[in-house]
Amino acid sequence: MKNNRYIVIVGCGRLGSHLANQLSREGSSVVVIDKDETTFNNLSPDFSGFRVQGDATQIVVLKESKLKNADIFIATTHEDNVNLMVAQVALKIFSVPHVLARVFDPKREEVYAQLGIDTICPTSVAAEMFLRAVANGATEGKGIKP
Amino acid sequence: MKVLIVGGGKTLYFLCRNFAAKGYEVVIVNRDKAECVQLARQLSATVVFGDGSDVRILKEAGAMRTDAVLAITPNDQDNLVICQLASLRFGVPRTVALVNDPDNAEVFNKLGVSAFSTTQIVGSLIEQRASLEQIINLLPVGEGRVNVTEIMLDADSPVSGKRLKDISLPQNALVAVIIRDNQPIVPRGANELLAGDRVVLITLPENHGPVLKAITGERK
Predict the structure, then answer these.
(1) What architecture does CATH give domain B128-216?
(2) Domain map (residue ranges) of chain A
(3) B43 touches chain A (CB under 8 A)
(4) Which residues, including other chains, have CB under 8 Å from residue A23's CB and lie 6 or more apart?
(5) Per the CB 3.0–4.6 Å rule, which of A16, A103, B7, B108 could disulfide with A11?
(6) Residue A119 Cα, gap to closest chain B Cα (Å)
(7) Segment B48-77 mean pLDDT
C-alpha cells in the first residue's frame, strides 16, 4: 500500500538524493529536480526514477515533472525561500495532497505552518535530539539513534 | 507614508530617490555590506544590512509600523517570502513583489501576493511601439486592464477623412481625444478624423490589436 506513489523531490543534495534512493527502492515512482546536473551523481545506480535538470522556481520546470499527478511533494534544497515557494506552488496551484518542505530557520517555519505547509526544521530536530542525548547521557551514556 | 524596500541595484536607488523626493519615509534592506554603506551615503534613507526574508531583520527595519513593503531582489523566491512574512507576521497592509520570471506573476497572485513583471511591462511596450511606428505613446492603467494609446494618423489610415460615427470600432474602445494643431478636442460623432491628427485611444488589452488595425489599417 505504501508503494506505487508518485513522488516529486526538489533538490538532489545529500538529503534529497537519500530520500530519492530510499523511496525509489521502496517502489515509488520518483522524480528528482535539481538546477545542477552534477548532483544527480548522488543517486544510487539502482535509482529507477526520473531526473529533471532545471530551476524549480520556474513553473515550466514543475510542469515538466508532471507535478499535477504527484501524491507527495518534498522540497529539500538548501535555500529556505526556494523550498517555501515551490511547496506553496505544489499545494495551491498543482493541488498536491501532501507537501513537505525543509526549512532551516525556525522563525520562518512558524509562519508557513499557518499556510498549511508541513515543514521540517533540521535545526529544531537536531537541537531536540542533542538535548535528549544530554539529558539521557547522565544516566545511560549511549544508544541514541537518529 | 513609510515604505520598506528590499533589494539593490540602480532600480532600488532611483526608486528610493523618487520616494524620498515625495516625502516618504524610506527604509532599505540590502544584504551586501558595501552597497549598504554606499546607499546610506547617497540617500536620506535608513539602511539595514541583512537578509530581508529573515524575521529578525524585518523587525529591525521596523516592519511593524510600515505602510508598504516592496520586494525587488533578483530572486523570485526571496521576494515571495519577504512579502508573505511582512503581511502574515507583521501585518503590513500593502506588499508588492517583483517577479523576474514573468510566469511567476500569475503564480504569486494565486498565492495571494500582488506581483509585477518588468519584463512583461517593458516587453509589451517595446513590442507595441515597434510594431506600429504611428504609436507615439502607450500607457497601461488600472493594473494593465486598460490601455491609453496615442497614435499619429497619416493619409494611408482608413479612418482619415471619416466622421467618428461612420467608423466602426470593436466593442469597448473609445476615441477619447483628438489633438489637432496642438489643440485637444474631445470628439463627438460628427467630428472628422484627419491625417496629421494625434488620436488618444482607450482600449482593453484584448481588443487593443483589432482597434489599432481599424484605425491604422493593415500594415507590415
Answers:
(1) 2-Layer Sandwich (3.30)
(2) 6-121
(3) no
(4) A7, A9, A30
(5) A16
(6) 15
(7) 95
Report DSSP state, residue A96. -
pLDDT tens profile A4-27: 899 999 999 999 999 999 999 999
Mean pLDDT comparison of B98-102, B157-161, B211-215, highest-scoring range: B98-102
The answer to whether A84 contacts B103, with C-beta atoms less than 8 Å apart, is no
* Burial category of B85 from C-beta neighbours within 10 Å (exposed 0-12, middle 13-18, buried 19 and up): buried
Searching chain B, which residue's CA lies closest to the CA of residue A94?
A: B107
Highest CATH level, class, for B2-117: alpha beta
Contact A57 B76 (CB under 8 A): yes
Residues of A in contact with B77 (CB under 8 A): 57, 79, 81-82, 84-86
Q: Could you give the ipTM of this predicted complex? A: 0.83
Where do the structural domains in chain B lie, given as residue ranges?
A: 2-117, 128-216
For the stretch B181-202, pLDDT in tens is 999 999 998 999 998 899 999 9
Q: Cβ B54–A89 below 8 Å, yes or no?
A: no
Say yes or no for a CB contact (<8 Å) between A84 and B54: no
Q: Does B100 touch chain A (CB under 8 A)?
A: no
Contact B81 A89 (CB under 8 A): no
pTM for this predicted structure: 0.74
- The size of the A-B interface in CB pairs under 8 A is 58
